[in-house]
């Protein structure tokens, strides 16, 4: 007898070691524990033999360890364990990196299961690199044909987790299911209890999948309810009406240093239309990197100012916020529109043609007075940093913001309970159906064409030292023409989270070697905000020729004079991310080249070549999807966290179903007043999102 809310310590027959594991996992209730779903399943009913081992396909083998040894390496921090595995049909090599404890756990003669995808190594032949493994004991054999593989947390082994989960799910018999029974019945969903049994103790892959879909359905449904509830509440509150001032619009367009493209005009005009209504706008502007989204934001903020109200313009990083403030200053000059920049290091106001630093008190006072364009990071979401008469919230590179922050935006309220219009901008191509699921009902404007006169960025995939030489030569030529260049370094080891080490090492290497006559500048996460600002400004003003940086330059940074980009260890990045990175160049009518330098021939060069062939973010995202699976399209990897815990982009059908059900439920009861359980669940999601 075990209930969903019971503390994990109630699980029957736990050993002292398992209790310690649970404590380390920080799961408190049985429900928390069982909410950790298997990532995949090993199908022990379908074992392959070494003689028939396919290359590159995930499989499971039952093998005996023939040899296992630690290899000598020159690099102290790296431990390589290499061995030979055999069954009656042949033998293969195996390598484990940085898992010194393997030698204590395994010895020759042991029988184990290994799962992974085999590769052909130039020296060691066919084999596995760091495969998952499990001893082939009587117990694993008896555990049934389909074994769940859980996401591993810390040093907990699969074996321990499986045992604990099994004990919990076998004993569980009380689960509260808040889903209306009619939905469960109509959509032919398993009950929650049944779904838990299906995912943790499946008898076939199909069963496991059926169970998983119930979790996806619930997750998307509650998320949708939360979004739509927020939307309904917002509609209830209403938004400030922004008058469309046609005369001003014409003047603004005529005063720009360039001609707006037709798509830019369409996006701006659609936004103006939305903002004339009292229904709060939810509009997404999608446009590839360099398509010119910032000017649309500026235009809309100016229009709001004409209505005597405020805008908050949010960027994902301090650097970008600062840059936006400078850009706005340029666009706004003739109209004297005040700009307030709020970053972690500065509070700065530009008003009446003059820029002044503010104290916290002065900033507060200025925000209260309103009728201003506030630019900053998500700190602007905090009520005290938000103009009191906020009418428009603009979120740039919205995929960079966590769901939590995004949700907070949809419920953002002014002190008088009026809800601002929301304009998000993204360079990440999201299919419309997914956008609806992730962001609720919204209007989408797409900018298809780039400003006229842009030459496509030429991209070249190169390898190693020889390739680098070529890139340096091109870089020096460009510098002679008065142009600038970026060098992007990946993080070299896990301890180098902020990239300071890799950037500084590269700077030292280049300074004495290949680029010794060139003015170099570095930028990485360990620098203070002020130092970063300084570096960006110096680079923008042409005080250096080459900026060596981490991927901090990935989002939005606009330096039209930079025409060359060299990306080191390019194979470590996703295609979409590389496309974002190279979008930092090609922002003028000059010829631009991006060099993707792969470490060695082992790197998957054909993947990188996709970027040589295409300059279209949508095409690239699709290729990435084919090559790397679903995660990257939504910027999951870029932002480091998924939007959903269970749902994957390929679950579109279940998502659509859950979306429909959510809209049906709310149609009859827009504020969920007659369904306390559902409302509580939806509010729970909203509140946890809010408070993060
Ligand atoms: P993104 O869509 O990636 O945010 P930006 O707004 O930073 O792009 O614009 C990229 C560059 O193109 C900027 O230097 C901007 O001034 C310029 N730009 C924007 N629109 C036009 C246009 N219609 N014609 C020429 N240049 C433009
Ligand atoms: Mg931008």
Structure overview:
About 2% of the residues have low confidence. Helix 7 crosses helix 8, helix 10 runs parallel beside helix 11 and helix 14 crosses helix 24. A hairpin with a 2-residue loop joins strand 4 and strand 5. This protein starts with a strand and ends with a helix. By secondary structure, it is α/β, with parallel strands linked by helices. The longest helix is centred in the first third of the chain and has 33 residues. It is built from 24 helices and 26 strands. The strands form five sheets. It has a nine-stranded mixed sheet, with helices on both faces. A seven-stranded mixed sheet has the order 7-8-5-4-3-6-9, with no helix packed on it. The structure holds adenosine-5'-diphosphate and magnesium ion. Adenosine-5'-diphosphate (ADP) binds next to helix 11. Magnesium ion (MG) binds next to loops.
Describe the SSE topology.
Elements: E1 2-3, H1 16-25, H2 30-34, E2 40-43, E3 58-71, E4 80-87, E5 90-97, H3 102-105, E6 111-117, E7 119-121, E8 125-129, E9 132-135, H4 138-142, E10 146-149, H5 158-171, E11 172-174, H6 181-186, H7 192-200, H8 205-237, H9 246-255, H10 262-275, E12 282-287, H11 294-306, E13 310-314, H12 318-332, E14 339-342, E15 347-351, E16 354-357, H13 360-369, E17 373-376, E18 390-395, H14 403-410, E19 421-426, H15 432-439, E20 443-447, E21 458-463, H16 464-480, E22 484-488, H17 500-512, E23 520-523, H18 529-540, E24 546-549, E25 562-568, H19 575-582, E26 593-598, H20 605-613, H21 617-628, H22 636-639, H23 652-668, H24 676-691
The structure holds adenosine-5'-diphosphate and magnesium ion.
């Amino acid at each position: 007898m075990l209930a969903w809310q019971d503390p994990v310590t109630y699980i029957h027959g736990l050993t002292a070691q398992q209790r310690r594991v649970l404590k380390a996992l920080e799961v408190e209730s049985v429900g928390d524990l069982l909410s950790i779903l298997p990532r995949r399943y090993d199908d022990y009913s379908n074992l392959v033999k070494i003689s028939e081992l396919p290359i590159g396909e995930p499989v499971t083998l039952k093998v005996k360890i023939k040899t296992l040894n630690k290899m000598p390496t020159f690099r102290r921090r790296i431990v390589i364990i290499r061995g030979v595995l055999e069954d009656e049909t042949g033998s293969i090599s195996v390598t484990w990196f940085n898992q010194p404890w393997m030698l204590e756990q395994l010895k020759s003669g042991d029988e184990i299961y290994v799962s992974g995808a085999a590769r052909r190594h130039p020296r060691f032949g066919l084999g596995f690199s760091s495969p998952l493994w499990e001893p082939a004991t009587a117990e694993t054999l008896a555990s049934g044909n389909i074994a769940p593989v859980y996401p591993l947390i810390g040093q907990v082994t699969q074996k321990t987790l499986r045992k604990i989960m099994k004990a919990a799910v076998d004993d569980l018999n009380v689960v509260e299911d808040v889903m209306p029974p009619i939905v469960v019945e109509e959509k032919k969903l398993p009950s929650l209890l049944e779904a838990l049994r299906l995912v943790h103790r499946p008898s076939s892959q199909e069963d496991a999948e059926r169970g998983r879909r119930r979790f996806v359905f619930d997750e998307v449904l509650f998320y949708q309810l939360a979004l739509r509830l927020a939307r309904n509440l917002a509609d209830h509150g209403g938004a400030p009406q922004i008058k469309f001032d046609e005369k001003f619009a014409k003047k603004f367009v005529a005063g720009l240093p360039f001609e707006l493209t037709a798509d830019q005009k369409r996006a701006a005009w659609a936004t103006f239309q939305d903002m004339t209504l009292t229904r709060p706008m939810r509009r997404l502007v999608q446009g590839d990197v360099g398509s010119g989204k910032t000017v649309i934001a500026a235009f809309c903020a100016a229009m709001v100012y004409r209505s005597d109200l405020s805008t908050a313009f949010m960027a994902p990083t301090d650097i970008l916020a600062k840059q936006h403030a400078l850009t706005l200053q340029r666009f706004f000059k003739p109209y004297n529109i005040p700009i307030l920049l709020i970053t972690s290091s500065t509070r700065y106001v530009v008003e009446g043609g003059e820029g002044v630093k503010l104290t916290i008190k002065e900033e507060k006072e200025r925000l209260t007075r309103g009728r201003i364009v506030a630019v900053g990071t998500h700190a602007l979401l905090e009520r005290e940093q938000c103009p009191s008469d906020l009418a428009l919230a603009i979120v740039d590179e919205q995929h960079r913001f966590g769901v939590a922050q995004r949700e907070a935006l949809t419920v953002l309220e002014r002190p008088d309970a009026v809800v601002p219009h929301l304009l998000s901008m993204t360079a990440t191509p999201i299919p419309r159906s997914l956008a609806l699921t992730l962001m609720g009902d919204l209007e989408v404007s797409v900018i298809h064409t780039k400003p006229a006169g842009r030459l496509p960025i030429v991209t070249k995939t190169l390898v190693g030292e020889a390739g680098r030489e070529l890139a340096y030569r091109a870089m020096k030529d460009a510098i002679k023409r008065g142009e600038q260049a970026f060098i992007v370094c990946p993080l070299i080891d896990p301890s180098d989270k902020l990239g300071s080490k890799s950037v500084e090492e590269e700077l030292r290497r280049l300074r004495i070697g290949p680029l010794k006559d060139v003015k170099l500048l570095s930028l990485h996460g360990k620098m203070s905000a002020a130092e970063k600002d300084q570096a960006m400004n110096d680079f923008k003003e042409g005080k250096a020729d080459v900026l060596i940086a981490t991927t901090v330059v990935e989002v939005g940074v606009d330096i039209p004079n930079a025409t060359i980009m060299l990306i080191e260890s390019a194979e470590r990045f996703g295609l979409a991310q590389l496309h974002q990175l190279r979008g930092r160049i090609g922002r003028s009518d000059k010829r631009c080249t991006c060099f993707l330098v792969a470490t060695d021939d082992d790197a998957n060069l054909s993947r990188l070549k996709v970027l040589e062939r295409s300059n279209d973010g949508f095409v690239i995202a699709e290729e990435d999807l084919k090559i790397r699976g679903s995660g990257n399209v939504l910027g999951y990897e870029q932002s480091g966290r998924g939007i959903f815990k269970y749902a994957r982009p390929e679950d579109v059908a279940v998502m659509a179903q859950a979306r429909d059900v959510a809209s049906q439920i709310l149609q009859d009861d827009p504020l969920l007043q007659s369904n306390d359980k559902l409302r509580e669940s939806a509010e729970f999601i909203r509140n946890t999102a809010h408070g993060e």
